[in-house]
Write a structure and sequence with these properties.
Layout: E1 2-6, H1 14-24, E2 27-31, H2 35-44, E3 51-54, H3 69-77, E4 81-86, H4 97-113, E5 117-122, H5 127-136, E6 141-146, H6 152-160, E7 164-167, H7 175-183, E8 189-191, E9 199-200, E10 203-204, H8 210-221, H9 225-243, H10 246-251
Parallel strand pairs: 1-2, 2-3, 4-5, 5-6, 6-7, 7-8
Antiparallel strand pairs: 9-10
């Protein structure tokens, strides 16, 4: 099992979910919502080769946690991945948008300055604004747009800039989501859960729900499930190698 975007620390029984993810998954990327959350999670949950814990500053709370930006920048220096970061252009978060842009651009620049990092990026209603600093600081590393909800033209622009895309079961909840999944570049897709926020049939998506994602993509792509599994595993190996997660990559057959 593989999960490239999950908030393991925010499940009601985080320790149990963490232990089960370690048992079931070859690789789980635990993204955090703030630098302080990263620091606390790193202390509480044990480190393991198959569990990547990364510092982030989620755009939905960037306005309230703006003072933590300096801490995020310091943490980036010793991290090999950053997330969750990005922009949220929805009306609900319009009041913090300028601060969001400052946080995101500063983080991307820091990644650029220190030689590149893997980035798990939130881009709801803000794809073009997300792509701008990624273009301005080209050595930022590996951009992975999680739960992409942009337009066809935005998808083409993101793909042209070398973005990856992580997708999970909740992305298929609407007709638009299913149509969007068909258009994502097959060789640049990796699985995610986005649990516990993402829901499936009234429950939180779990870090080991890889098979559900594979089946949904099989329907969307009209491909045999065995071919979809192979594609996702092949993609995951390629991305993990780029991220320097060679132990996890070697565990994928």
């Amino acid at each position: 099992m593989i999960d490239f975007h999950c908030h393991v620390d925010l499940y009601p029984k985080a320790r149990a979910v963490h232990a089960e993810a370690l048992r079931r998954n070859v690789f789980t990327w635990l993204v955090t919502t703030s630098p302080k959350a990263f620091q606390a999670t790193s202390l509480v949950l044990s480190h393991h080769e198959s569990m990547l814990i990364s510092p982030g500053l989620h755009p939905e709370i960037a306005g309230d946690r703006f003072q933590e930006l300096d801490v995020l920048i310091e943490l980036i220096d010793n991290a090999n991945a950053v997330g969750e970061i990005g922009l949220d252009g929805s009306k609900r978060h319009a009041s913090s948008y300028l601060k969001q842009k400052q946080v995101f651009a500063t983080a991307v620049k820091r990644c650029h300055d220190v030689g590149g990092r893997a980035l798990s990026i939130h881009s709801r209603q803000a794809v073009l604004d997300v792509l701008t600093p990624l273009r301005e600081f080209p050595d930022h590393g590996i951009p992975i747009l999680h739960w992409f909800t942009g337009t066809v033209s935005e998808l083409k622009a993101a793909a042209a800039q070398g973005c990856w895309f992580s997708i999970g079961p909740a992305a298929f909840d609407s007709a638009a989501g299913k149509a969007r999944a068909k258009r994502l570049p097959k060789e640049k897709i990796v699985p995610e859960s986005d649990g516990p926020f993402a829901q499936l049939d009234g429950r939180s998506v779990m870090p080991w729900d890889f098979e559900i994602t594979a089946n949904l993509l099989s329907d969307a792509w009209e491909m045999p499930i065995i071919d979809v599994r192979y594609q996702l595993i092949s993609n995951a190996k390629a991305l993990l190698d780029q991220m320097g997660c060679t132990t996890a990559s070697a565990s994928l057959i």
